Amino acid sequence: MDSGITIKPYSHPVTVRFHDVVIASTERALELLEPGHHSVLYIPFDDIYFVHLEKTDTSTKCPWKGTASYWRVRGQGESAKDAMWAYEEPISDVAAIQDHGAFDPKKVTFE
C-alpha cells in the first residue's frame, strides 16, 4: 500500500530557535507531506547545532518511515525533552530524510 508521502525541497531559509538560542539554520530543508498530517520540515544534520541537543532514549515506529530517535534541546537554562526527531535508518521510500532532523513546533519556534 502506498503511504502517499511526498518529499520536496523547501524553497525558503529556515531558522529554528529554542527561546533565543538558534539550534538550526538552513537553506536546504526538505518538506515532508503525509496525508492527514501537517507538513514537516526536515533539516540536514550539517545545519543543526548538536551542541544544544542531547539524544534521549525515546523512540517511535512509523510503518511508512521507520524508527525515529529523539533529542532533548537545551538553551538559556531551559530544556525540552524530545524536541527533535530523526529517522536515522529510514525506510527506502523516504531515504531522502536520512541525516535530517525535524523539530516539534510546540517546543521550538521557526523563522
Summary tags:
111 residues; mainly beta; Metal Binding Protein, Guanine Nucleotide Exchange Factor, Chain A; 7-stranded antiparallel β-sheet; 3-stranded antiparallel β-sheet
Looking at CATH, the homologous superfamily is: Domain of unknown function (DUF427)
- Estimate the global geometry from the Cα principal axes: globular
Major sheet description:
7 strands, antiparallel
- The Rg value, from CA coordinates, equals 13 Å
Structural class comes to mainly beta
Mean pLDDT: 96
- The portion of residues assigned to helices is under 10%
The CATH class name reads Mainly Beta
CATH topology: Metal Binding Protein, Guanine Nucleotide Exchange Factor, Chain A
Strand order of the largest sheet: 1-4-5-9-8-7-6
CATH architecture heading: Beta Complex
Number of helices: 0
List the secondary-structure elements in sequence, H or E: EEEEEEEEEE
Count of beta strands: 10
Beta-strand percent range: over 45%
Regions with little confidence, pLDDT below 50 for 5+ residues: none
Number of domains: 1
Query: What distance separates the N and C termini?
Result: 36 Å
Question: Could you characterize what this model shows?
Answer:
- The model has no long low-confidence stretch (mean pLDDT 96).
- The strands form 2 sheets. The chain has a 7-stranded antiparallel sheet, with no helix packed on it.
- The protein has a single domain (6-110), classed as Metal Binding Protein, Guanine Nucleotide Exchange Factor, Chain A.
- A hairpin with a 2-residue loop joins β7 and β8 (78-86).
- The chain starts with 5 loop residues before the first strand and ends with a strand.
- The chain has 111 residues and is mainly β.
- The chain contains no helices and 10 strands.
